Amino acid sequence: MKDFNLASTIRQLDLTLTTTSGEISVQVDVPTAFIPITDIVPILRSMGEQTQAVETASTVQAGKEITCMKGCSACCERIMVPVSPPEAFALAEMMQSLPIAHRRRIEERLAHTRQHLEKVGLLSALEDMAESPTQWSDEKVDPLNRAYYALRQPCIFLEDGACSIYEHRPAACREYLVTSPAELCEDTEKNSVAVLPIPLRAGTALSILWADLMGGPVRLIPLPEVFEWAERHRSLLEQKWHGLELFDKALEGLDKFLNQALQGTSKND
Ligand code: SF4
Asked: Can you give the three-state secondary structure of 205-262, one letter per residue?
């Protein structure tokens, strides 16, 4: 790892990550001051995007086309987006910085979504997932994902067919890219969709970091629950960590995740 001391408040780091897509170099700017958990979010997301850019480039080089494009919102119209706790806090802060009219529109859609989820009996399951004292397995999350998908409930941030908080969207939205025809995304239960491999899941890395810091389970919060969750745990936002130490801790969790992913790949070989 090379590092360049740019200024007393930022350290620029060059890292090489061993991922399922091979060794990938990334560059990040890490604050050296004491920072809240939300300040690590853009750093991990940037790492995820840099690794995904390498995966995308090699996919295109192999003659395939990424079919996700502006104006296609098939996944935003139905998928239950999983959000890491640090991102939940970042989204809650972002909401406060939005122009009031935009915020009101999101709040109205959120209220409508939560009412609908309650009516069909899914809201309590989402709350359970957000607050569970133990980590939910993929087997436990899967039926909830399917039930949510079947509702065709658009994301609360979707406006006129586009993400209205694009710069702030969760890591899960940034990482999900497909190479199959866009129309197949209209029903992923019936159609087989070719999803691009994700070398680094920033949301999962952030969830692992939060679990390490708090001593709880690795949790992902369904998007319609994030503001409630962030409000309930608001006092934790007051904590601060030294930027470089927090980033080191994030790298430890990331290593665990990347090693597990690599082991999974070698088992499937
Ligand atoms: S946050 Fe934005 S990108 Fe993600 S599902 Fe919602 S509208 Fe789509």
From this structure: HHHHHHHHHHCCCCCCEEHHHHHHHHHHCHHHHHCCEEHHHHHHHHHHHHHHHHHHHH
pLDDT for the residue 157? 97
Separation of alpha carbons 42 and 56, rounded Å: 20
The structural domains of the chain, with segments of one domain joined by +, span 2-268
> Is the CB of 173 inside a 6 Å radius of any atom of ligand 1?
yes
Q: At a CB cut-off of 8 Å and minimum separation 6, what does 236 contact?
A: 37, 89, 214
pLDDT along the chain (269 residues), means of 10: 59 93 94 96 96 93 88 90 98 97 98 98 97 95 96 96 94 92 88 92 95 95 98 95 96 87 65
Q: How many CB atoms lie within 10 A of CB 21?
A: 20
The reported pTM is 0.92
Please give the distance, rounded to the nearest whole angstrom, from the Cα atom of residue 26 to the centre of ligand 1.
Answer: 25
Q: How far is Cα of residue 202 from the mean position of the Cα atoms in its chain?
A: 6
Q: What's the CA angle centered on 33, arms 30 and 37, to 5 degrees? A: 70
Which atom of ligand 1 lies at the shortest distance from residue 155's CA?
6
Helices (H) and strands (E) in the chain, counts: 9, 9
Look at residue 189 in the predicted model and tell me its pLDDT.
85
Is the C-beta atom of 172 inside 6 A of ligand 1? no
Cα–Cα distance measured from residue 23 to residue 167, given in angstroms and rounded to the nearest whole number: 27
Left, alpha or beta for 35 (phi > 0: left; psi -120 to 50: alpha)?
A: beta
> Among 25, 22, 44, 47, which Cα is nearest to 35's?
44
The amino acid present at 93, given as its one-letter code, is: E
Sequential DSSP letters for 43-111:
HHHHHHHHHHHHHHHHHHHTT------TT--TTTTT---EE-HHHHHHHHHHHHHS-HHHHHHHHHHHH
Are the beta carbons of 177 and 49 closer than 8 angstroms? no
